[in-house]
User: Which sequence fits this backbone?
């Protein structure tokens, strides 16, 4: 006994046809105007012959109903995700500035101590070099914040120059610990112009 094809789509009871160059789920080419064979609707006496048709077989009205059901969802998603993205970008920017500040401070104190050691322990020259490098890389305002945290001194016992910079916090973010963005660097260099004499025990 032959089984008639069911002229129902899987979203309703309206008839639909498959256009040329379209295939049903089993890959069978159908002519324009020929009804597609789909699952029997609920309560139908016809058995299910094929899987539900693909998306392109749906009526346009059915697609629009789904789109209208999602209307306004993007606004809620935007409101929920925007604060999270803002926090992530802020943390990335703060970490980048901390890393850059740490690198600049290390180079500045090293070159400052080196200049002081190269000129027979000239501490004023060491401060000047350090501040010049901080100002050129971090800006004048930020360099002034480091000025009172710079220490360069002569260690005559070891015929050397020592320098240190310690900044407790370079970035202030709420809900974070006070020592998360701490910057610290130091340098130790022998004086270039001195009468050596006999070496000490540490040399």
Assistant:
């Amino acid at each position: 006994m032959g089984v008639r094809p069911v002229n129902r789509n899987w979203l309703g009871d309206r008839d639909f046809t498959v256009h040329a160059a379209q295939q049903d789920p089993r890959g069978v080419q159908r002519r324009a105007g020929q009804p597609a064979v789909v699952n029997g609707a609920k309560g139908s006496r016809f058995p299910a012959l094929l899987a539900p048709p693909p998306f392109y077989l749906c009526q346009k009205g059915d697609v629009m109903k789904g789109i209208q059901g999602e209307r306004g969802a993007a606004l809620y998603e935007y409101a929920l995700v925007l604060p999270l993205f803002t926090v992530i970008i802020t943390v990335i920017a703060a970490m980048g500035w901390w890393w850059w500040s740490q690198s600049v401070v290390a180079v500045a104190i090293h070159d400052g101590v080196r200049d002081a050691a190269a000129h027979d322990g000239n501490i004023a020259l060491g401060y000047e070099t350090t501040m010049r490098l901080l100002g050129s890389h971090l800006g004048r305002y930020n360099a002034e914040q480091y000025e009172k945290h710079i220490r360069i001194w002569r260690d005559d016992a070891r015929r050397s120059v020592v320098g240190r910079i310690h900044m407790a916090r370079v970035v202030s973010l709420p809900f974070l610990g006070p020592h998360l963005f701490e910057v610290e660097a130091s340098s130790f260099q022998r004086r270039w112009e001195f009468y050596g004499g006999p070496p000490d025990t540490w040399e």
Remarks:
- Confidence is low (pLDDT under 50) at residues 13-22, 37-41, 46-50.
- Residues 86 and 92 are 10 Å apart (CA to CA).
- The two ends are 107 Å apart (CA to CA).
